[in-house]
Amino acid sequence: MNKHDKIYVAGHKGLVGSAIMRKLQTEGFENIVTRNSAELDLCNQLQVEEFFAKEKPDYVFLAAAKVGGIVANSTYPAEFIYQNIMIASNVINASYKNQVKKLLNLGSSCIYPKLAPQPMKEDCLLTSELESTNEAYAIAKIAAIKLCRYYNEQYGTNFISAMPTNQYGVGDNFNMETAHLLPMLLRRFYLAKLLKNKDFVAIKADLKKYKLGWGLDEKLNIEDENSIIQTLEQIGAYSDKVVVWGDGSPYRELMHSDDLAEACFYLMQNKDYKDIGELVNITDGTDIQLKVLIEMVKQIVGFDGEIVYDTTKPNGTPRKLMDATKIKALGWTPKINLQDGIAKIYEYYIS
Ligand SMILES: NC(=O)c1ccc[n+]([C@@H]2O[C@H](COP(=O)([O-])OP(=O)(O)OC[C@H]3O[C@@H](n4cnc5c(N)ncnc54)[C@H](OP(=O)(O)O)[C@@H]3O)[C@@H](O)[C@H]2O)c1
Predict the structure, then answer these.
(1) DSSP string covering 137-158
(2) pTM of the predicted model, to two decimals?
């Protein structure tokens, strides 16, 4: 990419897309074109074709997707498969028809089989059954990888696919019903700390800024301290303890979205389909046990109460780690260590 090239970032307001935007701006790229979903519905083929014919981007980062956790994935599987297949088909086909020089397609680790050997290498794609709770999403993401591959093979395009591990970072979601692991833990510990300090001014400010989810916001009487205490207990935040699901034994992998943006930029600038092949994992190949992560969050937030493990609740998958051999061989490794990354996102959250 040269500074004058036109770059389209699809999904520029999302966690990943906004990190890519920051990276491009830091590197001095100014010819960036964006649309939010109200201005351009990527599920609508006609709108996408008109947009590409008019704007003629040189490079495309495909970071737009309908995403969600286990509950959303299992409740709305038709929406997840339909919208994600439409977004990928429309953007990839329009990129081909409008001679886009390179496209980077973002997928996720859920494309790999449920029982894939750990750490998961790129070549375990489609070797056995997927996890049933997010199969619809995974099938759409696999379709996007295959679209890129077969357009490259038939039409000589240069469309590459990157599969990042779990992300956290600026712009993260702190709604307790839909948040990913880290923002959910940070908010739970922060609210427990405020309860311990009886800082109801700060608690009210937090509750006004972010939804709790699970129908709790509607039931809460924010002017009544007892109502606040009872509501926060329902999300596991008490003045003397924080309750977390499971026994803390599983391992999880986490990456700061600024690192992912670095990887996307690096691949776009330096590597082509011929170097990468069908897909590459974006990971540093290490994970952390939840117990250790939870203790780290507690220290960073500065909560001095107890951690209680609710072992009546499920643990989830014991380990889901991606293999980093290929991305390291391509010359990239992440820079932000977890401790610093968590401190950074905590600062972002409380500011
Ligand atoms: N977050 C993670 O932990 C993670 C991990 C691995 C991979 N990824 C991958 O990274 C990609 C982006 O994820 P994210 O976490 O950044 O998601 P996100 O924060 O939910 O953002 C998704 C973006 O997609 C846009 N979008 C959704 N439907 C659209 C439509 N029909 N038309 C136009 N735009 C649409 C949204 O635009 P509006 O806001 O304008 O509606 C939003 O900007 C996904 O492919 C995901 O699989 C994410």
Answers:
(1) HHHHHHHHHHHHHHHHHHH---
(2) 0.95
